[in-house]
Design brief:
- By secondary structure, the chain is mainly β.
- The chain contains three helices and 13 strands; from the N terminus they run ββββαβββββββββαα.
- The strands form three sheets. The protein has a six-stranded antiparallel β-sheet with strand order 1-2-10-7-12-5, with no helix packed on it.
């Protein structure tokens, strides 16, 4: 297993060792001690699983109360996973990274607290699982609209499928005073 640093410090791409043979494959998707040694802190207290159809965009989401770090992986299909740094005072504030996660490449993305997270489904459909470092708290959740020009994420689609809630999220500038400090 190895960890590849992303262009923004603290965001990590995990590439597990995949053992393949004529029967299929085996991998450790999570091992607390190994992940901690590689720089992916825990503990994780909640697992989430979503299924989405092609061209679906979910995000950009984060929690202010009980901030969540996330460890994201895809178990079916392929997504473009995105993390945007929204920590006030961070040298990379407003910057974003993306990584293709798929059931074929087995990559995982560790997204620390203070980052907004979203993903776009590149395949016919996708199932995404992610571990969270804090429980979901609807009262503390906040989001940033997917096409905010200040962040300027290069999504592969200008007309993705969105939930009504995600389509109505505010811009980064509108929530700046509520964001965590670096």
């Amino acid at each position: 297993m190895q960890v590849v640093p992303a262009a923004i410090p603290d965001v990590l791409i995990v590439e597990p060792d995949v053992h393949r043979d004529h029967r299929g494959f085996f991998l450790e998707s999570y091992h607390s001690a190994k992940f901690t040694t590689l720089g992916v802190p825990g503990p994780f207290v909640q697992d989430n699983h979503s299924k989405s159809r092609a061209r679906t965009l979910r995000g950009l989401h984060l929690q202010l109360d009980e901030p969540q770090a996330k460890l994201v992986r895809v178990i079916a299909g392929e997504v473009l996973d995105v993390a945007a740094d929204v920590r006030r005072g961070s040298p990379t504030f407003g910057r974003w990274i993306s990584v293709r996660l798929s059931s074929e490449n087995f990559r995982q993305c560790y997204i620390p607290t203070g980052f907004a997270h979203g993903f776009y489904v590149l395949s016919d459909g996708a199932e995404v699982e992610y571990k969270c470092s804090s429980p979901y708290n609807p009262a503390g959740e906040i989001g940033i609209v997917w096409n905010d020009p200040q962040i300027a994420i290069e999504w592969p689609d200008r007309e993705p499928i969105l939930s009504g809630r995600d389509a109505a999220l505010p811009r980064l500038a509108d929530i700046f005073d509520r964001l965590p400090r670096f």
